[in-house]
Amino acid sequence: MRTWCSTILLFVWSIVIRLVVIPTEAEGATFDVDLKLVLAVDLSDSMTREELHLQREGYVSAFRDPSVARAIASGEFGRIAVLYFEWGGPDHHDVIALWTGLTTAADTAAFADLLAKEPIATGSSGANRAMSFGESLDQPPIATATATSISASLLFAFEMLRDQRFRSSREVIDLSGNGINNSGPPLAPVRDLLVSEGIIINGLPLTWFAADNSDSTTFFGKSFLERYYDDCVIGGPGAFSIAVNDISRFQEAVRLKLLTEIAEREILATPVNFVPAEAAGVDCTVQELDP
Asked: Does residue 266 or residue 208 have the better pLDDT?
């Protein structure tokens, strides 16, 4: 059986050969930015049409908030770079917004407009798009990814960060999700690899799905998914996780998360101490499948 290391390398290579050249504002130009931020957004089949719609709307509204533009302007360069993709199974990574430099309020508003008009990708390859963000919610159900591969999504984000046309000493992956890793390579080695490369991974666990579950899913007020993200997903200096237990609060959670990441404001979110895989309180291999 292949070692986990070789399995991860194979996944990285499979991602690389699928990538296309990503254009930026000026071909061949390089820009210094205060932050390179990858937004990795869950599109697994456990999400309903309405939840997918509200999730995208949360990001759109957050980037339209003037406080986000002010946070960007407060940095050394007054500029960040953002990439937004939606993910599900190991082969489901659909880039909705390519690397985009944000400097002014007009830039952030334009980025929000882009997210608002782009359809939500469907199908395992992202090739079929059946749901436009602006369409009504009473259409036939869409077919989203049938698996949840946090590990493969982190590897995809890692490859996206290798684009050097934007340079920054801070590289952050902001990953949202409503389930644990159940497909692709094991999560802990992938998380540890990215952290060793200086990448910070923050989490946005979507816990409203378990709101009516029994107390067996909670531990001192935290749901299992929150503890799973704390122990198995996030990593790097100052890494933090903000759980969303009510979808109506998603927009505010995204706004606070962006402000914390852009302006490095520790008071907006309480960082969770990084826990090595061997010391985690949660079994990070729970329900993971052999590749």
From this structure: 208
What residues have CB less than 8 Å from 110, skipping those under 6 apart?
none
Q: Which two tokens stand for residue 37?
A: 């931020």
10-19 pLDDT per residue, tens: 454 444 434 4
Taking the CA atoms of residue 55, residue 61, residue 62 and residue 66 in that order, the dihedral angle to the nearest 10 degrees is 180
Which pTM was predicted?
Answer: 0.79
Longest dimension (CA), the chain: 55
DSSP for 64-85, please give it.
HSHHHHHHHHTSSSS-EEEEEE
Nearest by Cα to 4 from 278, 193, 231: 193
Where do the domains of the chain lie, and which CATH numbers do they carry?
Answer: 38-279 (3.40.50.410)
Instruction: List Cβ neighbours of 216 (8 Å cut-off, separation of 6 or more).
Output: none
Residue 99's CB is within 10 A of a number of other CB atoms, namely 23
